[in-house]
Amino acid sequence: MIEIIRKKNVAFYATGRFISLIGDWFLIITLPYYVYQISHSTLLTGLTFLIELFPSLLFESIAGVFVDRWNHKYTMVTADLLRACLLLPLILVRSPQQIWIIYLMAFARELVSLFFDSASRAIVPTIVERDALVSANAVFSSVGSFARLVGPFLGGILYSIAGFSSTIIGDSISFLLSALLIMQITPLIVTQPQTSKIDSEESQQLTTSRRRFLTEWRQGLMAIFSRPYIRNVTIASILFVFAGGIFNTMLAPFIEGILRAPATYLGELSVAIGVGSLLGAALLNKIGKTAHANYWSIVCLSLFGIGLIVFIYSRSLYIVLPVFTLMGASSAVYNIVVVSEFQKTIEVSMLGRVFGTFGGASSAGAILGAAIGSLFADLIGIVRMLQIAAGVTIISALVMIAVFRRSQAIVPPSDIGIQDDAIENVH
């Protein structure tokens, strides 16, 4: 992993993402707290979370179409600059009557983030060699996990010392620094923004921009559904995030209502998942060298489901903490493998649409899981909802088993791992 970090593109990309994510966590932690502080309303606070989810659900696949038309690097830089500006009006909010400004800016910021996120995943195959994709994605995952560990802590300290405005300014500065670092990236592959070969063949027949847009959007869908592995891993991932939506919704009620444990217990479990994510990313080089992507998709989903079952029936923190660490590692490895396979098997000119469609479907699954968990927990119980989440996760692993059995062309181990000399540099 040390070898891949020394690459200029990876270093600039990872550093920019780390700084930006630290700033994001400032806002994630302090924004709902500030809304409740000035409004004393759980409804208005809850709306803060809901409004931030809607852009992904409604517009992520649409954003992917435009990302494929534009230069990925400059899309990311523009998005960072826009997000830095969109945050500043939040400083004006001082009363419940002004909370609409928070909602409007939060929605706009998340909408712009959709373009950044799709472009940030689509650009990776153009700045990293193909045989180093998994290693690079492992580094980027580690950056995200580490930011998740330290960002909330730093944001809380900044808020307590200098107030809400300081966290807004800190997040805005993080976007500016991210844009500056991304500008230093030099693509190894120069690609002209385009839709695809099919687009150029059909361009004579398209009489309106609307028809062209719909054609490109459908091509993003077909890029997923025409490839058995991509199609089925998308289905498995939707099931996985659906289960995650239930799990996230039920976690706090289970700890407080069933275990009768203090709030610190929840914090300890969150840290365990974060540590597991770091370990999973760090070990992925060796894991990728020894097995197929399909194998590890199955293993990771299965381990997460089994870990959830252990959590439901175990009452010992000494057992649950290692289990949550394993669950964090499994989730990280699964996500890295899936993203890497998308980047390897989908042409660059289609990646924005594919990731946009994949992200929108995943968001829908997560929202549906959270909604079902919230609506039915009082009827059938918290434990039963967690059991359903564990069962759905196991089903997602079974979907991947079906993919493995039916696939006629399994990705060889050498495509999932990295070069021997890079493996020797791990640790």
Summarize the structure.
By secondary structure, the protein is mainly α. It has helices spanning 2-5, 8-39, 42-69, 72-87, 99-122, 124-127, 133-162, 164-182, 197-202, 209-225, 228-258, 263-290, 293-313, 317-345, 348-380, 382-406, 413-416, 420-423.
Distance between the termini: 7 Å
Rg to the nearest angstrom? Answer: 21 Å
Number of helices: 18
Strand content: under 5%
Report on this structure.
This protein is mainly α. It has two domains: 1-186, Growth Hormone, Chain: A, CATH 1.20.1250.20; 208-407, Up-down Bundle (Growth Hormone, Chain: A). Helices cover 83% and strands 0% of the residues. The chain has helices spanning 2-5, 8-39, 42-69, 72-87, 99-122, 124-127, 133-162, 164-182, 197-202, 209-225, 228-258, 263-290, 293-313, 317-345, 348-380, 382-406, 413-416, 420-423.
Layout of strands and helices, then pairs:
Layout: H1 2-5, H2 8-39, H3 42-69, H4 72-87, H5 99-122, H6 124-127, H7 133-162, H8 164-182, H9 197-202, H10 209-225, H11 228-258, H12 263-290, H13 293-313, H14 317-345, H15 348-380, H16 382-406, H17 413-416, H18 420-423
Helix pairs in contact: 2-3, 2-7, 2-8, 3-5, 3-10, 3-15, 4-5, 4-8, 5-15, 7-8, 7-12, 7-14, 10-15, 11-15, 11-16, 12-14, 13-14, 13-16, 15-16
What keyword list fits this structure?
single chain, 427 residues, mainly alpha, Growth Hormone, Chain: A, globular
